[in-house]
Amino acid sequence: MEDDQDWDLRAFSERYLQRCNEHRFNELAEFVAADVRVNDRPQGLEQYVAGLRAVVSAFPDYRWNLRRLFVEGPWLSAYFTDTGTHRGTFLGVPATGRAVSTVEFAVNRLAEGKIADVWVTADNLGLLEQVR
């Protein structure tokens, strides 16, 4: 049986994902630390949000579809199927209008109620094959 903290983190994750899927990135400071690290590198909230905006610029209908969420202590591990339509340049490839689907895995560590560390990997090679 899960404890209350696990349920709180699940609810936190659902609210964060909702903001991302609504592309309300200007509201992510509620969820992400100002000095967030991504894949063991300092990135900061501003650059973190810029990365999300770049994806949505290329795929305006981009969605992160949660398939599995695992919660343990301050850790959130998620498996997503991401979808969108290629309407802008992505990784040097001009818009093709093609619908894409890819997988993504993310592990987040929370500290002081916010995402402090992110380890993420997505199948960008598979995505590029779909838009070429």
In short:
The chain has 132 residues and is of the alpha+beta class. The chain has helices at residues 4-21, 44-58, 124-131, and strands at residues 32-38, 41-42, 63-72, 75-85, 99-111, 114-122. Helices cover 31% and strands 39% of the residues.
Written overview of the protein:
With 132 residues, this protein is of the alpha+beta class. The protein is built from 3 helices and 6 strands. The chain has helices at residues 4-21, 44-58, 124-131, and strands at 32-38, 41-42, 63-72, 75-85, 99-111, 114-122. Strands 2-1-6-5-4-3 form a 6-stranded mixed beta sheet. The N and C termini lie far apart (46 Å).
Keywords, separated by commas or semicolons:
single chain; 132 residues; alpha+beta; six-stranded mixed sheet; 3 helices; 6 strands
Give me the secondary-structure topology.
Layout: H1 4-21, E1 32-38, E2 41-42, H2 44-58, E3 63-72, E4 75-85, E5 99-111, E6 114-122, H3 124-131
Parallel strand pairs: 1-6
Antiparallel strand pairs: 1-2, 3-4, 4-5, 5-6
What oligomeric state is this? single chain
Main sheet strand line-up: 2-1-6-5-4-3
Strand-residue proportion: 35-45%
Please write the string of helix (H) and strand (E) elements.
Answer: HEEHEEEEH
Question: Which regions have little confidence, pLDDT < 50, spanning 5+ residues?
Answer: none
